[in-house]
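cron nightly-structures :: item 1 of 1
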Amino acid sequence: MMNNKRIPVLDIARGAAILGTLGTNIWLFAYLGNYEFLLGDPSDFYGTWEGITELFFVFFMNGKFLGLLTILFGIGLEIKRRSYIRNGEERYWPWLYVWGMMLLFIDGYLHYLFVFEFDVLMSYAVTGVIVAFLLSRKPGTIKGVAIGLGAVHLVIVGLLALMMEVIFRFEEFRAEFVAEMQAVSAVYLNGTYADQVAMRFTDFWAMRFEAISIIPMNILLFLFGVYLIRSGVFAATEEARIRRRKMLFWGLGVGTVLNLLMFLPSYSAGIVVRYAFAPLMALGYLMAFYWLWEKRGSGFFFRRLSEVGRTALSCYMLQNIAASAIFYGWGLGLGGRLNAFEVIGVWTLICAGMMLFAHLWLKKFPTGPFELVWRWLIRLPVRGKEQRKAA
């Protein structure tokens, strides 16, 4: 039976996921596109309080909120599918959703090209199309695909980790990688805005390597989000509460222990944790939000997170634009000049700005500005039919 009741905690979790992804991305902005800090030996950070602070901040952010956002996209896909059925629009599924994913892909490409090379929207758009068609298959087929993709993803992560451990042990290869990262940083700090756009356009496939390689993981997490809705995990029943507590244990208990592996003196530990173990901790985050929401209700902070969640696409794009303006050379040019405490301070200010924006905007409109345009464009192919029906 379809459940028409909105699940408030999903907006809260989505808002946290949006701001949390910036918790990882803020270092990419601050280091001017240099992601060496995600690949290096964590023992390099142990010498100072600043390094330890950065390391632990990244521990709680890196991959966790991206995994949470990916699961929430899968949940949203299933909720959208059910809304089509509930509203008697089965004939439009999945074609209108696919059309929406095409618009999201274009949006993501423009965001990648003009704002941020680590944009995730393009990857989500491709994943959404695949999963939308996959949901029409038998449950056994879906389960088989999920298991197969999980295995493929782990193989990809394992090979990447092995390659990094081998290559980064050679000083000449590591020096070459550092030189390439410094060249990218120089463009972001000293180049013009046009130079940055040109670099992203020219180096498209290299800069989109992560977005392409995580598609198997994205499909798996989308399907897991679909499973959470179909299995009734968010229902107000004792059975659902017991299942949520188990997921909370596995996510924050077992997941946290596995994520501690990032502190091992290894060049690849951060990558293995980000792409193999972080999604488990992301599940723990989701269940923790649900538990807190049940215990405390919608307090001030949760209301602000919920508002960010309702304007998620707009806040995601605006926070990246804000970070670009703060750190890149065409803006304030603070990249490479702030310590870890100051970078975390900038992240906090941007998060507060997004909360304020979402709060003020939603006083006048039902959803964010980019969402309004996107939803209007999604219905565009059937708008004529709807108008004739209304007449």
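cron nightly-structures :: done
Residues 19 and 351 are 6 Å apart (CA to CA).
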